[in-house]
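Appendix B. Raw example, untouched.
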Amino acid sequence: MAKTHQVLTHPAPGTVVPVRTYTDEQNAKMEALREYANTQLLPESDPYYHWELRWLNKPDTIPRYMRAAKWNLEDAKRRLKGTLEWRRDFKPDLIPPDEVRIESETGKMCEYSPGACILNGFDNEGRPILYMRPGRENTETSPRQLRHLVWCLERAKDFMPPGQESLVIIVDYKSTTLRTNPSISVARKVLNILQNHYVETLGRALVVNLPMLLNFFYKGISPFLDPVTRDKMRFNPDLLELIPKEQLDADFGGDFEYEFEPNSYWEQIVSFCKIAPDGTRLDDAASKPTEETLAEEDAIRDTSREEANSTAPQGLEEISVIA
């Protein structure tokens, strides 16, 4: 493939995206969790109310928290309440792009080398790929780095095709040193956010080019990895078994000859995700949920669920093919 600055914002044609279906008992538990969530909402007069409602009404939110709790309703309530409180404080859906933009860039000497955290491409199941390169980190450790990571997670969710609820993180340790590698304390903060507030969002964590020198780092964070996260990690896998060649960066054996250019990359991400300068959405004025539109969305979700459950064995998955 020819070299390009174009970011891949859609999976390869023919990509099969799993679509989950649920039993009647599971649907009842999800409805109970939704009713509980409605009792925890901020008052409508609160400036963040719209954003909280927007997040709760995304079709994947309630199912993810029930699955993470292994269908234990009380545990799901506890988890969901914790995330509501975190989101009110962190406001991940209102991070202004310019606040974190510098974290996606590298120093001027490496102007066309991808920064430490880049969203580009999709795996075989339509999961967006987030490339993380600790060796190319160009700023001192700060709260802004954490906010940039959260901003990237939010954008990865914007990239997800219908039916897909998770992403792939590729951590490339090439050229990483003890100085550029995140500290264990920073890694713990990242794990806390990923495991507790983006539950069931990590599809795979693929670690490549890990030097022996940094093995101690994974030993250090191992006690803080929950079993589910640990099971999703693979070290030095064959990436071409998991990602279409045309979607995988050439640095990792793929055919995608992506050339990073900071301004072009940033503009494409912000434009595709429709992010306004203040962190809100450009189409929000026309899409703020009203009682009528929320009722319509609920009806559509219920109809889709009933159709899926009537055509597939309960508890299993259907598939959705991207044209």
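End of appendix B.
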